[in-house]
Design a protein that fits this description.
It is a single chain. The protein is an alpha/beta fold. It folds into 2 domains: 69 residues, Hypothetical PUA domain-like, domain 1 (Ribosomal Protein L25, Chain P), CATH 2.40.240; 157 residues, 3-Layer(aba) Sandwich (Alpha/beta knot), CATH 3.40.1280.10. It is built from 5 helices and 14 strands. Strands 1, 2, 3, 4, 5, 6 and 14 form a 7-stranded mixed sheet that branches. Strands 7, 8, 9, 10, 11, 12 and 13 form a 7-stranded parallel sheet that branches. The protein starts with 8 loop residues before the first strand and ends in a 12-residue tail after the last strand. The relative contact order is 0.16. This is Ribosomal RNA small subunit methyltransferase E.
Length: 264
Amino acid sequence: MLEKAVMRRFFLSDSIRSDDRVILTGAEARHIASVCRLKAGHKVELFDGEGNVYTTVLETVDKNSVTLVIEEARFEITVEQSPLTLAQGLLKGKKMDLVIQKATELGVHTFLPLESRYCENQGARNRQLERWQRISIEACKQCHRTAPMRILPVTPLAQADFSIFRHRLVAYEDEKISALPQHLSKQPGAICLVLGPEGGLHAEDLHVLQQWNFTVFSLGRLILRAETAALAATAIVRYLSGGLEPVDRQLSTDHPSPEMENLV
């Protein structure tokens, strides 16, 4: 049996909408024309990052401007009972980029960059946030996620507010007994997962989290790199909370009330 072809997906940025047509300029137009080398007549999908998806046909293609005819417009959203916030201690350089990319692909709802005792990332915060947002959007194009992961500003651990989360989990390299709790799928609710930076979590960091009633767990006997630990823990938590189950997307012509409004 032939597999259904998956259409390429592009982000609706730098665009002009007119009736049943969209004109793309900037980076996305260059990507279509020069990188993907698509031609007039090819079908592609566009998404706006808010759940709207458009099936379109390329009408004209130029490296500076691409015109597309809209064939179908729909609203796609997956509503989860246990949205996950990944609170990651700042990692150096491309390690943080990797975690953001893969967290988007794994379906993390919100990303909270944390400044903890052993963090060494001292980059320009505004530029970092813009870069991370671009990385999440690019990951959405690859995995066909309709809305990018929400990325919050860098926050000192001592100033973070974890009150909205039903489940609070922190991976700690010195924990020798407790594994991840197995009951997450039986008790739906917002989850916060904390991972430390390259140097791990300081005892004072752990004390702050324990005051918020975080459950401390181990990722096993082996010593993992910070980025490996983040992705392993994220995948396990997503699985245990039901986030990796195959489910049909919910389609709607209207915008529903934002899920987990108090996470915004």
